[in-house]
C-alpha cells in the first residue's frame, strides 16, 4: 500500500505520522517527514517558534487569520502590520477519532528599514480519513502551487496532480540588464498503477505544455476554455516500471521505457542480498553488473554491505546488541583492488529506552551541520526528550554544546522549549523559543 497517512492512536497518545513509501513524494508535498507523539486526546495543537531577540509576545489562535490593516499588498512598503516580528507556526487539528484533519504551516517575516517589508508564506495540508488529499502553498496571499492526491478503494495512491506558478525572467527592451518577472503555469500529473496484490507496477509523470501564457483562477479552467478546447499538450516526462517475483518481492526496476534497468536478488524470505544494473540496456539484452551485496545475521538483521566502484570496492559492517540496536559500524575502502584504506569506525551507546547517548568515531569523524567531531554525548529527561548534546573534537575538548529546557502541562506534553547554543557551558546563549498551545477532547 502506498499512501500519505496522518493518524492518531486512540488510547493514551495522539500521534501523526507522515508515511512515505514512494520516492520524491516529499518534494511534491513539501510536508516534512516526522513522527510526533502527544499525550492525551489532543483536539488541536498550535506551535510557534521565534528568536528571543525579536519575539512574538502572544500566542493567539487568530494568528493564522492575521490581516494587514492597510489595503496594500503585503510586499509593498508602508503597510501597517498586526505583528512586527519573525516567527514560524504550525497548527495541527484532529477529529474526535484522533485522525489528523489539517496541518497549517506559516512563516511570517517582517523587516525594519524605515518602512515595513513583510512576507507571509503559508502551506495548508488537508486530510480525509487520515489520508492526505491536498496541499496548497501561498506567498502573501497568492497561490504558488496546489497539489491534490487521489486513492483507490484499497487506499493506494493512484494520482498526484500539481499546478504551480514558475517565475520567468525576461530582459526589458530599454535595458537588457533589467528583467521583468512574469509567471508561467506548469501542471504535472503522476499516475500510479498496481497489480492485484497492491504492488506498485508503474509510475508515469506527465508535463502539460501550454500554447498560451495564462493562469486561470478557477481550477476548472486550468485545462480547458469555455468550449472545452484543449489548450495544453500532454507530454510524458518520465516513467518507472516495477517487477516482482511470485512471493511479492521486487526484482527489477526500469526507467523511461527501457532506458535503464536495475536488478534485485532476494533470499527465500525477501531480504535483498544483491543489486546491480544492466549495462548498455536497450530493452533486449541485459549485461548484468552487480554493484552491491548484502549480508544478514541469523535474526535477519543487516550486518554487511559490499559496494563495487569503478576503481575499487568498499564495504561496511554493523554489530548489534541483544536489543537489536547497532553498537558498532565499520567501513573500509579498497582502491585499485590493492590497497585497503580504513574509512570509518563508529561505536554507539544507548539508555534503557533505546535512545542513543554516545557516539564515538574511533576512525574518521562524525559529520554534523556545525562541524566534524570525535565524540557526541546526549542526555534526556524523564519524558525522554533530549536535554543536552555535547560535541568533542579530536583533542577531547568540548567544541559545541546544545541545551534544551522544557515546560510541561498536566498531560506531560511540553508547552515551551528553550534552545541554547554555545562553544562551551559558559558561552551558552538562548537562540530559539518554541511554544505550544493544546486543546484537548474531554
Descriptive account of the structure:
The protein has a 24-stranded antiparallel β-barrel. A two-stranded antiparallel ribbon has the order 1-2. It has 5 domains: 1-137, no CATH class; 152-237, no CATH class; 245-291, no CATH class; 297-351; 365-442. It is an all-beta fold. It contains 1 helix and 28 strands. It is globular and about 65 Å long.
Descriptive tags:
5 domains; single chain; 1 helix; two-stranded antiparallel sheet; 24-stranded antiparallel beta barrel; 442 residues; 58% strand; mainly beta
Helix content: under 10%
Shape designation: globular
Largest sheet: 24 strands, antiparallel, barrel
Give the number of DSSP strands: 28
Structural class: mainly beta
For the termini, the CA-CA separation is 34 Å
Strand content: over 45%
Provide mean pLDDT, rounded.
Answer: 77
How many helices does DSSP assign?
1
Q: How many domains make up the coordinates?
A: 5
Low-confidence stretches: 7-12, 16-30, 56-83, 211-231
Q: What is the chain-wise order of helices and strands?
A: EHEEEEEEEEEEEEEEEEEEEEEEEEEEE
Rounded to an integer, what's the Rg over CA atoms?
Answer: 26 Å
Amino acid at each position: 500500500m502506498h499512501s500519505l497517512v496522518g493518524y492518531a492512536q486512540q488510547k493514551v497518545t495522539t500521534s501523526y505520522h507522515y508515511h512515505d513509501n514512494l520516492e520524491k513524494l516529499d518534494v511534491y508535498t513539501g510536508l516534512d517527514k516526522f513522527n510526533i507523539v502527544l499525550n492525551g486526546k489532543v483536539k488541536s495543537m498550535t506551535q510557534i517558534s521565534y528568536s528571543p531577540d525579536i519575539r512574538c509576545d502572544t500566542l493567539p489562535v487568530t494568528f493564522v487569520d492575521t490581516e494587514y490593516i492597510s489595503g496594500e499588498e503585503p510586499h509593498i512598503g508602508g503597510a501597517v502590520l498586526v505583528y512586527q516580528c519573525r516567527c514560524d507556526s504550525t497548527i495541527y487539528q484532529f477529529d474526535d477519532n484522533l485522525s489528523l484533519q489539517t496541518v497549517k504551516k506559516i512563516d511570517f517575516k517582517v523587516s525594519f528599514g524605515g518602512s515595513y517589508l513583510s512576507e507571509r508564506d503559508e502551506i495548508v495540508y488537508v486530510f480525509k480519513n487520515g489520508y492526505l488529499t491536498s496541499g496548497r502553498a501561498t506567498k502573501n496571499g497568492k497561490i504558488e502551487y496546489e497539489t491534490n492526491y487521489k486513492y483507490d478503494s484499497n487506499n493506494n495512491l493512484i494520482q498526484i496532480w500539481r499546478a504551480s506558478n514558475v517565475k520567468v525572467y525576461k530582459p526589458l527592451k530599454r535595458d537588457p540588464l533589467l528583467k521583468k518577472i512574469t509567471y508561467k503555469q506548469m501542471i504535472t500529473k503522476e499516475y500510479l498503477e498496481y497489480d492485484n496484490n497492491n504492488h506498485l507496477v508503474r509510475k508515469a509523470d506527465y508535463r502539460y505544455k501550454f500554447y498560451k501564457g495564462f493562469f486561470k483562477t478557477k481550477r476548472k479552467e486550468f485545462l480547458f476554455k469555455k468550449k472545452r478546447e484543449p489548450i495544453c499538450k500532454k507530454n510524458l516526462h518520465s516513467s518507472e516500471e516495477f517487477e516482482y517475483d511470485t512471493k511479492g518481492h521486487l526484482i527489477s526496476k526500469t526507467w523511461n521505457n527501457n532506458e535503464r534497468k536495475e536488478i534485485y536478488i532476494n533470499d527465500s524470505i525477501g531480504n535483498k542480498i544483491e543489486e546491480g544494473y544492466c549495462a548498455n540496456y536497450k530493452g533486449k539484452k541485459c549485461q548484468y553488473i552487480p554493484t552491491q551485496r548484502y549480508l544478514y545475521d541469523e535474526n535477519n538483521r543487516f550486518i554487511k554491505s559490499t559496494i563495487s566502484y569503478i576503481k575499487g570496492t568498499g564495504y561496511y559492517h554493523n554489530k548489534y546488541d541483544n536489543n537489536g540496536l547497532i553498537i558498532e559500524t565499520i567501513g573500509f575502502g579498497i582502491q585499485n583492488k590493492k590497497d585497503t584504506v580504513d574509512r570509518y569506525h563508529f561505536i554507539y551507546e544507548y539508555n534503557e529506552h533505546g535512545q542513543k547517548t554516545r557516539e564515538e568515531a574511533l576512525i574518521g569523524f562524525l559529520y554534523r551541520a556545525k562541524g566534524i567531531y570525535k565524540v557526541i554525548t546526549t542526555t534526556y529527561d524523564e519524558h525522554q526528550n533530549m536535554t543536552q548534546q555535547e560535541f568533542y573534537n579530536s583533542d577531547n575538548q568540548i567544541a559545541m554544546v546544545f541545551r534544551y529546557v522544557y515546560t510541561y502541562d498536566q498531560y506531560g506534553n511540553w508547552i515551551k522549549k528553550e534552545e541554547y547554543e554555545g562553544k562551551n557551558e559558559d558561552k551558552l546563549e538562548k537562540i530559539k523559543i518554541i511554544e505550544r498551545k493544546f486543546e484537548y477532547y474531554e
